[in-house]
C-alpha cells in the first residue's frame, strides 16, 4: 500500500510555497477535473486559445479557455494568481506552457 507522502511526489506545477488549500490549488484541481470530464483533450482545447501558436497561454487566454469549460468561481484575479503561483520553470514571458498544466 502506498503512503500519502509517496503520492505527493508526483509532478506538481505549483510552487512549493503555494497554499495547498488556496485559490490557485483549487482552480488547478477544478481545471484538471474539467479536462478529465471533457471530450477534447486539454491540449486541443488550449490550442484553440493560443493566439501566438507558441504552445503557451497568457492569463487572458487561460481565462477564456476556463470560461469555455464553465469552471464556476473563476475570476481574472484568480487566474493571475494561478499564473503567479505556477512553478517559475513553466512560465515564459508571463505565458504558461499548455502541456505543463
SSE inventory with pairings:
Elements: H1 4-7, H2 23-37, H3 42-47, E1 56-57, H4 59-68, H5 76-85, E2 91-92, E3 95-97
Helix pairs in contact: 2-5, 4-5
Q: Give the H and E element order.
A: HHHEHHEE
How many strands, which pairing sense, and closed or not: the largest β-sheet?
Answer: 3 strands, antiparallel
Tell me the number of strands.
3
Roughly how much helix do the residues carry, as a percent range? 40-55%
- Shape, per Cα inertia axes: globular
Radius of gyration: 14 Å
List segments where confidence is low: pLDDT < 50 over at least 5 consecutive residues. Answer: 1-10
Count every helix, treating DSSP H or I runs of 4 or more residues as helices.
5
Order of strands side by side in the largest beta sheet? 1-3-2
Counting helices, strands and paired strands, the structural category is mainly alpha
Gap between N and C termini: 28 Å
β-strand amount: 5-15%
Mean pLDDT: 79
What does this structure look like?
It is a single chain. A hairpin with a 2-residue loop joins strand 2 and strand 3 (95-97). The chain contains five helices and three strands. It has helices at residues 4-7, 23-37, 42-47, 59-68, 76-85; strands spanning 56-57, 91-92, 95-97. It is globular, with a radius of gyration of 14 Å. A three-stranded antiparallel β-sheet has the order 1-3-2.
